[in-house]
Write a structure and sequence with these properties.
The chain has 440 residues and is α/β, with parallel strands linked by helices. It is built from twelve helices and 14 strands. The chain has two domains: 295 residues, Zn peptidases (Aminopeptidase); 108 residues, Alpha-Beta Plaits (2-Layer Sandwich), CATH 3.30.70.360. A hairpin with a 2-residue loop joins strand 1 and strand 2. Helix 2 runs antiparallel to helix 11 and helix 6 runs antiparallel to helix 7. The mean pLDDT is 96. Keywords: Hydrolase.
Amino acid sequence: MTHADPVPPDDSYLRSLVAATADAVAAAEPLSSPHTGADAATRAEVTAAVERSSPDLVALSQDLHAHPEEGFAEHRSVRALADLLNRHGHEATVGVGGLDTALRVSTKEQDGPHIAVLAEYDALPGLGHACGHNIICTTAAGGFLGAATVAERLGGRVSLIGTPAEEGGGGKEILARAGVFDDVDAVIMLHPFSHDIALHPFLGRRQLEMIFHGVGAHASAQPFMGRNALDAAVAAYQGVSALRQQLPQSDRVHGVFTDGGARPNVIPARAALLFYLRSQNPETLRDLAARMTAIAEGAAAMTGCGVELVWDAQPAYLPIRFNTALAGRWSVNQALTGRKPLPPGIVPESLTGSTDLGNLSYRMPALHPMLAVSGPTVALHTKEFAAAAGSSTGDTAVRDGALGLALTAADYLADAELRKAVHDEFEAAGGALDVPSFFA
C-alpha cells in the first residue's frame, strides 16, 4: 500500500493577481451619485437608530456564527432574528411563502414606494458561516430597523424578508413564485467579501445531472452483451473538458461522478454525473446548457446507452443585473464609515460565485454590494473566511453594513428623482424577465 500527498498548487498567479489588484484598488475612485437622497435630519435619525441597535446586531451575528444551520433547516437562526426584531418593537411573521424558515416584517402599509432589505442565514455543511451569512442577516436587520424609524414619515414602506437556503436551495426564487415579493418595488442586501465593492458580478448557475442507462453484463464472460454506462459518463466528462477551451472567460463548468457502478467485474448499467454551469449572462447560460445537452446525447449515442437529463433539482440562479443608481447611493453612504467601495472591474471579476439574488434582480431593481471582512487572498467558502466572519473585523462589518443599508433604503424612500433613476435604469436594461419560463 502506498500513499502520496498531493502536490500543492503553485501560488505565483495568485500572488501576481493580488499585487496587480492592490495597485488598481489604490488608484480607483469610488462611485458617486448625482442624487441627494434623504435630508440631513432624516439621515441623522436613521444613523441614531442603527447605533442603538448595533450591540444587539453584533451579538446576533456572533450567535448565528456559533450555531450554524444549513438551508431550509435554519429554525434556530430565524427565531433568533425574529426575537431581535421583537425586542425592537417589530413583530415578524415566521413561515411565509411556503417555507418554514422564511420571515417577513414590514412597517405600516401605505401608498408609496416599498423597498425590502433581504436577510440570509443558512450555513455551509462542514464549514459553518464560510460565506458570512451571519453578517448578511444582521446587516439586513440593522438596515430595516434604521429605515423603519423614518419610513412612515417619508410616505413609504420598508420590509425585512428572511430568505432561506441561498446556498443551492434557491429560497428567493421559491418565495418569489409564492408571491412574497409581488408588492415590493426594489430589494437591497450585501455580501461579505475580501474587498469593498459597489458592483461585482455574480454568475448565473444551473445544475445538470446526467444519468446514463446501459445494459449490465459479466465483464469477463460476456462483455459483448453489455452497454457500459460508465463509458458513456466518462465520454461526457471528457467532452465537457474539451468544451472548456471554447467557453467565454466568464463561464464555468464543474462536475463530479455520483455513480460509476458497484463492482469491476460487472459492466455498469447505470452511471451519473452532476454538473454546475455558470455564466455571466442569462442568454449565454442558456447557450451553455444547450451545448451540455449535445455532449450528453453524443456520449450516449457513441456507447449505445440511453441518457436522462435532470435540470435544476433546485431553482436555477440568474446572474445579477446591476443598478448603478442604487450602487452610487450605497457608495456615498459607506464613505461615512471610512470605506471606499470600488467600482466594477477593479477586483478581477473571475473571483465570484452565484446567488439567488440574481433572480430577483431580473424582476425588480436590486443592490448587492460586497463588504470587506477578510484579507485579499481569502476566498469565500473556506475555513479562513468562516473565521473572518466571526472575527472583530466581521463585527465592524455588521455595524458599517447596517448603516449603509439603512441609509440607502431611506434615500430610496425620500428621493423621487433617485427612484426614477433606479427604475429607468432597470427598464433600460430590459425590464422584468419572466424568470420561471426563461430556461423552459
